User: Fold these one by one.
Assistant:
Number 1:
Amino acid sequence: MNLSLLEPISTSSLTWYVLVETLEQGQIAAWVAQFPESKVTAESQEAAIAALKTLLNKHMAAIKVMPLQLSFQNSEDPWFQLCGILKDDVSFAQWSDRFWTQKQESIEDDEIISVEESLRVM
């Protein structure tokens, strides 16, 4: 995996999604999910959000926002390595035949079930 930092983003504003909670004591807690340490409490929602804005402005004054680009060398799904692993296994074929025979016997005589339907029945 290759990591590369791009140029810092020069923004004058960022949008944050604020979590607001009413506490048992009647106070309001507000925080940004990305910064759990930013939690503030106040007597009202407006006061909590104002305190949170002040805290975030102070915090963001010392922070650069930089995009991080990730590139992966191996994009093949590791489960694909298992595809076809049992295709020449005689014992698996025998087990599979017995399984489907038993499955068909457990279904009503006039009903034929497909593989997809049997997986929904299981």
Number 2:
Amino acid sequence: MPRVFARPCTSLSAFQMKPYSTMECGAERQTHDMLRHTVERLWHPFTQGYRGADLNIYRFRENLAGLCCPGNIFTCQVNGLLGGTRVLEDFFATLLSGFDIVHASVEGSRGKPLSNPADICNYTGYYVLAHTRPFLGWQPSPASLRSTGPTSALPGTTIRSSVQYEFNGATPETASRSAFLLNDCDGVEATDATATLDGDPDPSSKISTLIVPFTTYVEGLVDQSRLSHVVLRTPVMELLRTRPECPEAVQKCLESREALKIFATLRRAGVKPELITATTLLSASKRDPAWMSALGIL
């Protein structure tokens, strides 16, 4: 029987459950390292130097197939939206429609002492966005992701700023591994940095980037290194809509769950992101009969 780590109230009839309180220290460490590794695997496709809006380029669905439990055993929640792997796919497909993930990191070193049981299931980290494509009509520019004031952070949070990331998928040598060690992402502002496209030293080719924190709660089958449940929270939409250069119509879309849901539906149907504008989504989100009919076909 595979050993499972899950919430005490959760019961999966097919698997034997083992609560945290009965685990030996070695089992605790094994569980922690396995779950942390699965979180790293979740972000792995975006650390290989691939660029573009098509989720297929990253082989993300194949990655999830090898990472998550099959069928309805796997459940997830992304910023409050419940579902299965499709919720994760839609989140990243929406994000990649206008931005490249040029770096990602999961905090917490292997071998670090576990101070409490929550350490086993909760993991934090950050990812770096670069505005490289039009997003709902918002055109990329050298300053499109910059903020107007100094970056704020919670006590105990370490922030890196003024770091340059080259768009080659490599880990920045100047970046510290401790950043945005948060219990909750709400109300946190990310830092700005600059990026050079393809390592071009020409200053005119530099664009601003945004370092976005995330928190992840995971449960999984330890012996199979597969996830059974994921909760991903990241304030990326809130941070994007507060950028000074974010157009008003795009801000309204990022505030509207209905508009974002329609956006994900169109992207899943194969509609190119450059053809989708904020005006279009806002019109569709008002449940115009023609739009509802078209979306029903999709």
